[in-house]
Write a structure and sequence with these properties.
The protein is an alpha/beta fold and about 450 residues long. About 30% of the residues lie in helices and about 20% in strands. It is globular, with a radius of gyration of 22 Å. The structure holds pyridoxal-5'-phosphate. GO terms for molecular function: 4 iron, 4 sulfur cluster binding; catalytic activity; metal ion binding.
Length: about 450
């Protein structure tokens, strides 16, 4: 018997009212009161963009997280509401004309599909290269790209409490069924994990697994306490619910069951890591957001924070420093800062690598060592996660210093390599090797992996 005080004693009791979850999609844009105050032209632009890119926002985000006096420059407004610049001019004009003419729904949808297909809906070989098999059968809803970590996309968790305008998985939220990655089969997920004892980390992701009912989550996670899963030491859950719906952890009907599940997993010896997606300190500006964090941490689960660096939202060193300080104060561990991927509304959100690195450095300079656990800015590209480690001059040539934080071949990790400096490059494929080399060291091997389909 262990003497550790267990649930429910260590869960602080908080006095919060239950809140009804009320959500708006593109069809209900006009029902959002706050939006009605905006100029008609702005609302038209939103309708146009929302017919191409996913839109979904809930009442809590609208009323508690957005500072409407700052609109359109408010970071959370930019994070959830469609803006004209998110579509290229030609795409915008095409769609706007259809709306002006009062075109049929079917015509709007057909045009939307064509536009989406031009927006690189599956960045970094998501569909072709990361498909694992079990008994010769391709497993939907599972990705296994890096040796230690398996990604699992439970079918019931493939939506979110609100959508981020810059989401790199935007394609799975816009109708076309064949774009979705999902799995209904817990047994196959468990089967794959059983066979792959090199996997130490299961990352449950989406969408947002926290939109699932606790009872579903229990079905996936509870069996991992059996001895045949001893190699799975960490259960990570990727979520933005701490921002978009912190009530999930505090007052929702099955919030207590969820907290109890975390506590049970921790007590049984698993490391439970909530991988929170944060972009801006304003997301942690409400009492309920802090209460959710305290409640999760009281179970022994850790919260790690990651998120992309995005123009119009957080391309600002002071905002990052403030976010990291707030995270550390609340016991959250800063983890990754990502470069916005080359997909969707990238042209609106992209920040050149050089600028992203400078923002990162200026922010890191302002915080204590405990907040300097944030690594990046990092590109989740086909070959792996590539971090911009610095900008320097070597033998008279200005270069980026790069390294893999994760690689398709684990042996690529941590080797410094160099690219010609560029003011404008925003992604790995725009970089050229420095010092007159023809290729980066990993390119031939990566090409072979692509030919061999994985
Ligand atoms: C980032 C990532 C992981 C996890 O990598 P860590 O560095 O261990 O956090 C796993 N799989 C994929 C596909 C990823 O992009």
């Amino acid at each position: 018997m262990n003497s550790i005080v267990t649930f429910p004693n260590r869960i602080p009791v908080e006095e919060f009212e239950e809140r009804r979850f009320q959500v708006y999609t593109d069809r209900q844009l006009d029902k959002i009161e706050a939006i009605q105050q905006l100029p008609e032209e702005t609302r038209f632009e939103m309708r146009v963009v929302a017919s191409v890119l996913p839109f979904r926002v809930n009442e809590y985000v609208i009323n508690e997280l957005i500072n409407w006096d700052q609109v359109p420059n408010d970071p959370i407004y930019q994070l959830v509401f469609p803006q004209k610049g998110m579509l290229k001019d030609e795409h915008y004009e095409r769609m706007a004309n259809l709306h002006r003419e009062g075109a049929e729904k079917a015509d709007i949808q057909a045009a939307a599909k064509e536009i989406r297909d031009e927006l690189n809906p599956h960045p970094a070989g998501q569909m072709e290269m990361n498909m694992p098999t079990l008994n010769g059968e391709v497993l939907d809803g599972i990705q296994h790209k890096y040796r230690e970590t398996m990604l699992f996309f439970p079918a019931q968790g493939q939506t979110c409490h609100s959508y981020c305008t810059f989401c790199f998985r935007w394609a799975q939220f816009v109708g076309d069924k064949d774009l979705k990655m999902s799995s209904t089969d817990a047994a196959r997920m468990h089967g794959y994990l059983k066979e792959h004892t090199e996997i130490t980390d299961l990352l449950v992701t989406g969408g947002d697994p926290m939109v699932m009912k606790t009872k579903n989550l229990v079905q996936y996670l509870e069996p991992l306490l059996e001895p045949e899963f001893d190699h799975v030491q960490t259960i990570r859950i990727g979520t933005k619910a701490l921002t978009f719906w912190p009530y999930r952890f505090v007052t929702d009907k099955d919030a207590d069951d969820l907290i109890e599940l975390f506590a049970r997993l921790v007590d049984a010896g698993k490391h439970v890591a909530i991988m929170a997606h944060y972009n801006h300190w304003q997301e942690i500006s409400t009492d309920i957001a802090e209460a959710a964090i305290r409640r999760i941490r009281s179970t022994g689960a850790e919260i790690r924070a990651q998120g992309p660096l995005i123009k119009h939202v957080n391309d600002d060193a002071d905002a990052w420093a403030k976010l990291w300080k707030k995270e550390v104060k609340l016991g959250i561990i800063p983890y990754y800062i990502f470069v916005e991927r080359d997909t969707g509304a990238k042209n609106y959100f992209e920040v050149p690598l050089a600028e992203a690195y400078n923002i990162y450095r200026e922010a890191i300079k302002q915080v204590s060592g405990l907040a300097r656990t944030a690594r990046g800015p990092s590109m989740s590209a086909g070959p792996g996660k590539v971090e911009v480690q610095g900008i320097t001059e070597i033998s008279g040539e200005k270069v980026f210093v790069l390294r893999f934080l994760q690689g398709r071949n684990p042996d690529w990790v941590q080797r410094p390599f160099f690219a010609k400096y560029s003011e404008t490059a925003t992604w790995l494929h725009e970089l050229e090797p420095a010092f007159g080399e023809e290729k980066f060291f990993f390119e031939d091997e990566y090409e072979q992996m692509r030919q061999g389909n994985g």
